[in-house]
Amino acid sequence: MVTCGELSGCVVSFRDITDLRKKEQELNAQSTVIREIHHRVKNNLQNVAALLRLQMRRSDLEAVKAEFMASINRIISIAMVHDVFTYQTRDSIDLRELSQRILNGLIDSSVLPEHSIETRVEGQHLLLPSLQAVPLALVINELLTNSFKHGIQFLENGLITIEILEAKGQIQLSVSDNGLEPLAPFDTEQQRRLGLQIVDSLVGEQLGGKFRMERIEGMTCVTVCFPKHNLEEQV
């Protein structure tokens, strides 16, 4: 305070932030525990995948090996989600980044050296809550596996694209390939494949959405559409 041009006093304000500091420490501790849980789940899934690989090598039948590899890729796709959450504090994941990770992993395990595969991941960077991340990782894995096995398998120069869009609270993810047109209609033989049955179940029951297959300008396209959950709605 100033009186007649001279300092005659002052006002000192104190604020007790002990509770705020305590809550901050509790949140940091909780975040550390959650990341550690994700890390352990990822390691356990990788161990399961490693055991399946050992079992796969004991078989001489290519059909048996293919089924083992399909199961291994499904497990690894889930492990990738937990791996992302291990190194971040937010409980959400970038859908485009996740798609690229799964695509890269499948290329390493599925593409033959003599094949030339062009891949594109396009669209928006959308954050999804962990509640949607795991089922969607499995869906992406199945759609890409379907493209590798039944689309571009016999092509020397294959093309696979992933496109991600959001509009009016709906997320649309499309996986397309330039493989040969399926001999059977999409609603018969295609639907009986285990991979697409898994997609149908996950999209309908866990994501609350729908998917469709169609042939567009020489490309076989599978589109998944589902409502986006707000991050604050996740418990």
From TrEMBL:
The keyword ATP-binding applies. Pfam families: HATPase_c (PF02518), HisKA_2 (PF07568). Keywords: ATP-binding, Kinase, Nucleotide-binding, Phosphoprotein, Transferase. GO terms for molecular function: ATP binding; protein histidine kinase activity. Residues 36-109 form the Signal transduction histidine kinase subgroup 2 dimerisation and phosphoacceptor domain. It catalyses: ATP + protein L-histidine = ADP + protein N-phospho-L-histidine. Residues 134-228 form the Histidine kinase/HSP90-like ATPase domain. Its EC number is 2.7.13.3. It is an enzyme of class 2 (transferase). PANTHER family: ETHYLENE RESPONSE SENSOR PROTEIN, TWO-COMPONENT SYSTEM SENSOR PROTEIN. This is histidine kinase. The lineage of its organism: Bacteria, Bacillati, Bacillota, Clostridia, Eubacteriales.
